[in-house]
Specification:
It is a single chain. This protein is mainly alpha-helical. The protein contains ten helices and four strands. The protein has helices at 13-16, 26-35, 44-49, 55-67, 73-88, 98-101, 107-124, 140-156, 164-178, 182-215; strands at 3-5, 41-43, 95-97, 104-106. α5 runs antiparallel to α8 (140-156).
């Protein structure tokens, strides 16, 4: 099977810039992407090629938001686990099957999504900004493990509303890396064990109650 490997592409100037330069906010990049969308249709390969440093974060954030919706948590959770495993393996960019990467995406549907994401992120970026940058790289694998565990909870426990808090925690981890906010990442990683414990206790409570009802 052929794959689209973003790592094999030449990185944009933003990715090759010196580490000390402050990168533009993700909302600015999404607005720029919106303005540069080809007419008619585009592809996932084109989109990810314009997000060399933030492709993982953008995709994981979108999937985490989708996982909040009822009935989507299982699919989104599985995809998030796949992406997190790639991060854990040390990849800098997603490894995507070619037939998915080259699938045509109508611009008329994609443009409002990008515009909406940019508008929401612009508000969020008022409180989320680059800080504590020294912990982002060392904690990358820890964050990936946290995402895998949280998404496993969403997949194995498709109980209404149980997947919301894990999905929000994954979204915070994705946002932390998108905006290079080490403080937000620390807060999300501290919250992750608490969320996992609460989630598994909730699942165990449902199982125990179902067992009790079955005996009476």
């Amino acid at each position: 099977m052929k794959y689209f490997d973003l790592q094999s592409r030449q990185l944009a100037p933003e990715a090759a810039a010196p580490a000390q330069r402050v990168a533009p906010h993700t909302s600015v990049i999404l607005k720029r992407l919106h303005d540069e969308l080809p007419e008619g249709h585009t592809t996932l390969e084109w989109l990810l090629g314009h997000l060399p440093r933030r492709s993982f974060g953008i995709i994981m954030l979108q999937l985490a938001v989708l996982a909040i919706a009822p009935g989507v948590a299982i699919v989104a959770g599985v995809l998030l686990v796949i992406l997190a495993c790639q991060v854990l393996a040390g990849r800098a960019a997603p490894f995507i099957p070619r037939f998915i990467a080259n699938r045509k995406l109508p611009t008329r549907y994609l443009a409002p999504v990008l515009a909406g994401d940019a508008a929401v992120l612009q508000r969020v970026e008022r409180v989320i900004h680059p800080r504590w940058g020294g912990m982002l790289v060392p904690m990358r694998r820890v964050a990936a493990v946290a995402v895998i565990l949280l998404c496993t909870l969403m997949v194995l426990a498709p109980i209404p509303f149980v997947s919301i808090v894990p999905a929000l925690t994954v979204a915070l981890i994705a946002l932390a890396y998108l905006e290079e906010d080490g403080l937000l990442l620390a807060a999300a990683l501290v919250a992750a064990p608490v969320v996992l414990a609460m989630g598994y206790f909730a699942v165990w409570g449902v199982i125990d109650e179902a067992r009790w009802l079955g005996q009476h």
